[in-house]
């Protein structure tokens, strides 16, 4: 049976991924690693540590005889701009530690890249798999570096490392952070708590998005695909839906017609403008059969019901 380590286990992706992996492989085979944001109600094997501490990570791998690592720990776009040195240390040096350990112990690795790897010179529409990567944030720079490290470790050492360029991910199990795309989660808290929301992006700021269930399904599908099906060892383009704040508001108003939204763009608008609006992920669909299930309507309903139930607790 696989023994799987998930770093960043209590972040936006980890909070959903750990639960799904536990269902699939059993609670005793999933080791959740957190550093500071740890869910007190978590059920399962829990470890606390820092991915920058290579010796501690090596001890964990040996302690649990780890065969796969989902390496999710990292600083996101806005947090990275506040602390660029820390973002580089966690996002790049943390990844290199994991890749070195994987090389030494023959471990399969998943690591998430992001649409932040794109930049102002990237086409805005239907971004191809191979394109210009000139990001304008330290988060994006760390993602491009990470993609190249992943490819290098595969080609140089044979490490089976796989990656997806996540779009904006929308889920409700973890508390929303300060990422550029996370307005699409915050807006439901505004709806349910105040029936109003002040959006930090312009109403026409179109960005690639995805509901969390699709992201988790695609991530696990990538990791379970036969190695010969994986033709991209930097990071696969990965997409589902694309919408603007105004389009999301229109969907929400089908549920709550009196919902009030104002727009006050801040520095995150500049980040959004450096990213593409739509992504061509045909390579993922061809290689390992990626297919989303959630459109904007289905996502809106799921987020509304999920956050409403969460706030009622």
Annotation keywords:
43% helix; UDP-galactose 4-epimerase, domain 1; alpha/beta; 313 residues; 12 strands
Task: State the low-pLDDT regions, or none.
Answer: none
Total number of helices: 11
The rounded Rg comes to: 19 Å
* Domain tally: 2
Tell me the CATH topology of the largest domain: Rossmann fold
Work out the number of β strands. Answer: 12
- What's the order of the H and E elements? EHEEHEHHEHEEHEEHEEHEHHH
In the CATH scheme, the class of the largest domain would be Alpha Beta
Shape verdict: globular
Strand order of the largest sheet: 3-2-1-4-5-6-10
Topology diagram in text:
Blueprint (H helix, E strand, L loop, with lengths): L3 E4 L6 H12 L4 E5 L10 E4 L5 H11 L3 E4 L5 H6 L1 H22 L2 E7 L23 H20 L3 E6 L1 E3 L12 H12 L1 E4 L7 E5 H13 L11 E2 L3 E3 L1 H8 L7 E4 L3 H7 L8 H7 L7 H17 L1
Parallel strand pairs: 1-2, 1-4, 2-3, 4-5, 5-6, 6-10, 7-9, 8-12
Antiparallel strand pairs: 9-11
Helix pairs in contact: 1-7, 2-4, 4-5, 6-11
Description:
The chain has 313 residues and is α/β, with parallel strands linked by helices. It folds into two domains: 191 residues, 3-Layer(aba) Sandwich (Rossmann fold); 96 residues, UDP-galactose 4-epimerase, domain 1 (Alpha-Beta Complex), CATH 3.90.25.10. The protein has eleven helices and twelve strands. The strands form three sheets. It has a seven-stranded parallel sheet, sandwiched between helices.
């Amino acid at each position: 049976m696989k023994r799987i380590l998930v770093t960043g286990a209590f972040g936006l992706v980890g909070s959903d991924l750990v639960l799904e992996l536990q269902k699939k492989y059993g609670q005793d085979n999933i080791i959740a690693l957190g550093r500071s944001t740890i869910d007190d109600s978590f059920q399962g094997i829990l470890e606390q540590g820092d991915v920058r501490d290579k010796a501690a990570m090596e001890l964990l791998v040996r302690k649990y005889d780890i065969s796969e690592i989902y390496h999710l720990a990292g600083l996101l776009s806005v947090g990275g701009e506040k602390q660029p040195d820390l973002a580089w240390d966690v996002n790049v040096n943390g990844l290199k530690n994991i890749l070195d350990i994987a090389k030494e112990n023959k471990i399969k690795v998943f690591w998430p890249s992001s649409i932040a790897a794109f930049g102002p010179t990237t086409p805005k529409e239907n971004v191809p798999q191979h394109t210009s990567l000139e990001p304008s944030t330290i988060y994006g720079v760390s993602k491009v570096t990470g993609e190249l490290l992943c490819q290098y470790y595969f080609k140089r050492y044979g490490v089976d490392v796989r990656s997806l360029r996540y779009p904006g991910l929308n889920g409700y199990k973890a508390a929303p952070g300060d990422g550029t795309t996370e307005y699409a989660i915050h807006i439901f808290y505004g709806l349910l708590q105040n029936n109003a929301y002040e959006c930090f992006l312009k109403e026409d700021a179109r960005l690639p998005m995805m509901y969390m269930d699709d992201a988790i399904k695609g991530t696990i599908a990538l990791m379970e695909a036969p190695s010969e099906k994986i033709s991209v060892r930097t990071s696969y383009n990965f997409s589902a839906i694309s919408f603007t704040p105004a389009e999301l508001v229109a969907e929400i108003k089908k549920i709550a017609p009196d919902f009030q939204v104002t727009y006050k763009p801040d520095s995150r608008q500049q980040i959004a403008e450096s990213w593409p609006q739509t992504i061509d992920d045909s390579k993922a669909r061809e290689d390992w059969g990626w297919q989303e299930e959630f459109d904007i309507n289905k996502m809106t309903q799921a987020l509304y019901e999920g956050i409403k139930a969460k706030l009622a607790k």
